[in-house]
Amino acid sequence: MSGPGRGGRHGGQGGAGKGGGPKTGRGQAGATRGATRGGPGGGSGRGLKIKAGTVKGRSASSTRWLRRQHADPYVAEAKAQGYRSRAAFKLAQMDERFGLLKRGARVVDLGAAPGGWTQVVIERCGRSARVIALDLIEMAPIEGAVLLTGDFREAEVRARVAAALDGPASLVLSDMAAPATGHADTDHLRVMALAEAAFDFAGEVLGPGGAFVVKVLQGGTEPALLNRLKQAFAKLRHVKPPASRADSAEMYLVATGFQDRPKAGGGPGGGT
How far is CA 23 from the centre of its chain? Predict the structure, then answer.
């Protein structure tokens, strides 16, 4: 079975090296906050072009991806700041808006590879936090995080996560994306199946007042999932952070104020 993973892995978003964390250390959180407002500054990566000779022999889709990477300021900024993927800025921007990452929190990052979101969590929640990063593939170590390998949908893996948390989670993150098939309806169903599975997992580990962030696709969130989220959380918001590419259909559901276990099948929901 081809399993879930960070959008940065399946989408080809470049990493920023093999190190365990951002290069600039304790001052990084402030630097990230500055970069998230209106996008990375300083012109890093802007206007770069790839000459035809550098993509000789590549497919048209591969050539487009390379050109997009080189022209994307978030890719360059991620490398400059030591993040493993540009996706780190998406979480940083959502945290700026909603205050998701609190000092000393217990956080689970589902589909964490290559580790960009986990790096941001460590920065902002501090060394007293308990951070569990889970993926189907092994990741290079990230100081301050417990890295687990496995499928969160399996009971044995969920038990390992619960043991590592050693208490109720404050936040469950899911930036997972199934491998794209190129068939819109199939891809939609796969993304939504992962979102629902992540929500079921969150309902098992979150404590009262906890939060849940999950990737979905624009215009296609299933009413049943929305109703369940509205029942289980005090607030539910749809968000497309600035770091999400304009041509991407991805968006995020940010649910805060966990108050009840999710009910299978859902029911009439309140307003967002």
Answer: 21
CA angle 249, 219, 99 (to 5 degrees): 70
Task: Tell me how far apart the alpha carbons of residues 141 and 197 are, in angstroms, rounded to a whole number.
Answer: 26
Closest by CA position to 48, among listed 62, 69, 64:
69
The reply to whether omega before 114 is within 30° of 0 (cis) is yes
Residue 73, φ and ψ in degrees, nearest 5: -65, -25
CA 30, 214, 222, 8 torsion-angle sign: positive
**Continuous segment of H or E residues that includes residue 170:** strand 169-174
Q: 3-class DSSP state for residue 110?
A: strand
Is a pLDDT exceeding 80 seen at residue 11?
no
Domains and CATH numbers, the chain: 5-10+86-258 (3.40.50.150), 25-81 (no CATH)
Let me know: does 66 contact 45? Beta carbons within 8 Å. no
Query: 3-state class of 213 per DSSP?
Result: strand
Higher pLDDT, 12 or 72: 72
Calpha distance 244→235 (Å, rounded): 22
**Catalytic annotation, residues:** 215
Residue 72 has pLDDT above 60, yes or no: yes
Per the structure block, which two tokens stand in for 73?
């300021």
The pTM of this model reads: 0.74
Predicted local confidence at residue 246, as pLDDT: 86
